[in-house]
Each structure stands twice: as structure tokens, then as C-alpha cells.
Design a protein that fits this description.
- The protein is mainly beta.
- The protein has a single domain, classed as Immunoglobulin-like (Sandwich), CATH 2.60.40.
- It contains 1 helix and 8 strands; from the N terminus they run E-H-E-E-E-E-E-E-E.
- Strands 1-4-5-6 form a 4-stranded mixed sheet, with no helix packed on it. It has a 4-stranded antiparallel sheet with strand order 2-3-8-7, with no helix packed on it.
- The radius of gyration is 20 Å and the shape is elongated.
- The N and C termini lie far apart (63 Å).
């Protein structure tokens, strides 16, 4: 069984400012060629939670598992990868080119703390799935009040 690399980092939430993300998104919408060369595509992702877990699912078809990495810190998850361009055939001429290639990076701020000991990542059929157990607070206990 092969594993997806999961690293634990510090302060991922501050690595990519909200303003920078907004600018990147605006540039991509105007003209994808204006986007930063190091982040040529932004795969679509879902993040949802159950009572016990937070789950992120990303659509990253064409990315080799070896080119995929997940990094965690107490407040955020960073998913990075690389989709390599297919080999060019001499004399080929594009009539349509919609598939984006290159590096990507997505950072998600977590809505609740997670238990770093209970994180799993899998990759199948072009989807990466990261499942993180919530760090549930210990059960509250009631303290009896004694009469003095």
C-alpha cells in the first residue's frame, strides 16, 4: 500500500493572504494566462463536516500520486500538486485547449480543531479525499456541590 505524503506545518493560514487569493482569482477570470506561472490551475474541491470528521474531496484527475502532497497545521490544510502536460507530438495543432497543467496549491482554514493522529488521505479515480477526525473536547463532568 502506498501513501500520500502528509506533513505537519505551522501557520498555513498565513501563507496565502486573502487579498492575494482575491487578486489571483480576478486575474484568472480575466485571462488565465495572467495568473501566476507557478499556480496555473485551481482544482475544484469540496469541504464538509460530519459530527466526527472534516472531509475534503478534490477533483485532481491526471495528477500522479507522487506529485501530490498534503500539509496540516492546527488551523489549516494545504494541498499541493502538479499535473504534467501530455507529451507533444511533432506537427500537432490545437483546435481546443481547455485542460490546465502545472502546479496548484489550495489552502483551507479548518472550522474546528482536528486530531492530527487521525488523518487519512486517499486518491482514487481522479479524486483526493482527506478525512480528519475532529478534536472533540473531553466530556464535561458535573461537580457535586457539598453542604458545609
Amino acid at each position: 500500500m502506498e501513501y500520500i505524503k502528509i506533513r505537519f506545518g505551522k501557520n498555513l493560514g498565513h501563507m496565502h493572504s486573502r487579498l492575494q487569493r482575491t487578486i489571483d482569482d480576478m486575474l484568472r477570470q480575466v485571462n488565465p494566462m495572467l495568473a501566476l506561472a507557478e499556480q496555473t490551475w485551481r482544482p475544484q474541491m469540496d469541504m464538509y463536516e460530519t459530527p466526527e470528521e472534516i472531509i475534503i474531496v478534490g477533483e485532481i484527475s491526471g495528477v500522479d500520486k507522487e506529485d501530490l502532497e498534503v500539509e496540516l497545521d492546527p488551523k489549516a490544510v494545504k494541498i499541493t500538486g502538479l499535473r504534467r502536460e501530455t507529451a507533444r507530438v511533432p506537427g500537432m495543432k490545437y483546435h481546443l485547449a481547455e485542460i490546465a497543467y502545472g502546479k496548484f496549491e489550495r489552502i483551507f482554514l479548518l472550522p474546528v480543531p482536528i486530531n492530527p493522529e487521525e488523518v487519512k488521505a486517499s486518491y482514487a479515480n481522479g479524486l483526493v479525499k482527506i478525512t480528519m477526525a475532529k478534536h472533540l473536547p473531553k466530556q464535561a463532568r458535573q461537580i457535586p456541590i457539598e453542604v458545609e
